[in-house]
């Protein structure tokens, strides 16, 4: 009798989960499986049907100089955007959380860049970075510093992309930190104030440790974003000059939809997923020891 009741309850639960499970299989598990299979096949315009080639795609990728350059670009892009945007988001959240006039306006102003579509942001920053006539060039000329070709110089283009993404992402991460600050007990701050603790000591000993669960979540989201934010490349650089601003996801797009090499694009996708999983696992297990829940 008890077994029949448990089976009935479990069946009802699975029926409730069935619609989500169907969508998960169709749009997540099946594409992942298909991508893994294609990564072991030659699937390009040279042949009519995909042909199994084993690890040839992976061997070819290891000898692809453009791939290694793109991976290096993505590494620097992640190192430039993740710590900076998280630190700025935390500072903005602490500032916006204080009891001051216009708190709602301040929070809206900080978050507003994330509301704007990425294509629109790219067009705005394209105007800012335009040599001679752009806003930044005009400002440099006003102080007699000449002008720089931010998007045409291989040494500067990645830094230009990093600044733009940090400007956009910091407000988004600030929302998570604001939510985390609401859960920090005011009694802790009152006790620290009674003991005469300085603001920096309060932040280092109370605020930051108690925000570590939020920081872990934000770091994983920021890592994912550093590999998937490529909309701006279509408008601003097309990955140039000389692949200096190309990122892994944009390189995958080029292989799949510009050159129609689905085998290589699938191999690149598997590599990207593996890298994201590895870095996320390291982040999670390393930071989990430092988190106070």
Automatic annotation (TrEMBL):
It is found in: Cell membrane. InterPro entries: MetI-like, MetI-like_sf, UgpAE/MalFG_permease. Residues 71-283 form the ABC transmembrane type-1 domain. The chain crosses the membrane at residues 12-32, 75-97, 109-128, 208-227, 265-286. Its main location: membrane. It comes from the Bacteria. It is a multi-pass membrane protein. Gene3D superfamilies: MetI-like. Keywords: Cell membrane, Membrane, Transmembrane, Transmembrane helix, Transport. Belongs to the binding-protein-dependent transport system permease family. This is Carbohydrate ABC transporter permease. It comes from Cohnella cellulosilytica.
């Amino acid at each position: 009798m008890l077994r029949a009741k448990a089976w009935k309850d479990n069946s009802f639960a699975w029926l409730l989960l069935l619609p989500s499970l169907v969508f998960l299989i169709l749009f997540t598990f099946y594409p992942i499986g298909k991508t893994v299979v294609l990564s072991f096949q030659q699937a390009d315009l040279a042949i009519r049907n995909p042909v199994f080639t084993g690890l040839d795609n992976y061997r070819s990728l290891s000898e692809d100089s453009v791939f290694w350059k793109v991976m290096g670009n993505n590494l620097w892009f992640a190192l430039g955007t993740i710590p900076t945007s998280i630190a700025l988001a935390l500072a903005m959240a602490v500032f916006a959380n204080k009891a001051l006039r216009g708190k709602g306006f301040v929070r809206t102003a900080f978050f507003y860049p994330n509301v704007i579509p990425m294509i629109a942001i790219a067009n705005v920053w394209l105007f800012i970075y335009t040599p001679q006539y752009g806003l930044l060039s005009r400002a440099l000329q006003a102080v007699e510093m000449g002008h720089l070709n931010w998007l045409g110089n291989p040494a500067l283009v990645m830094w230009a992309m990093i600044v733009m993404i940090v400007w956009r992402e910091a407000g988004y991460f600030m929302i998570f930190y604001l939510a985390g600050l609401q859960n920090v007990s005011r009694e802790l701050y009152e006790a620290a104030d009674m003991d005469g603790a300085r603001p920096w000591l309060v932040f280092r000993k109370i605020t930051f440790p108690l925000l570590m669960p939020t920081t872990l979540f934000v770091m994983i989201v920021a890592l994912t974003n550093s590999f998937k934010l490529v909309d701006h490349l279509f408008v601003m650089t097309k990955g140039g000059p000389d692949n200096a601003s190309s990122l892994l996801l944009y390189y995958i797009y080029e292989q799949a939809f510009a050159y129609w090499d689905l085998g290589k694009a699938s191999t690149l996708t598997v590599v990207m997923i593996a890298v994201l999983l590895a870095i996320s696992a390291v982040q999670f297990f390393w930071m989990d020891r430092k988190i106070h829940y």
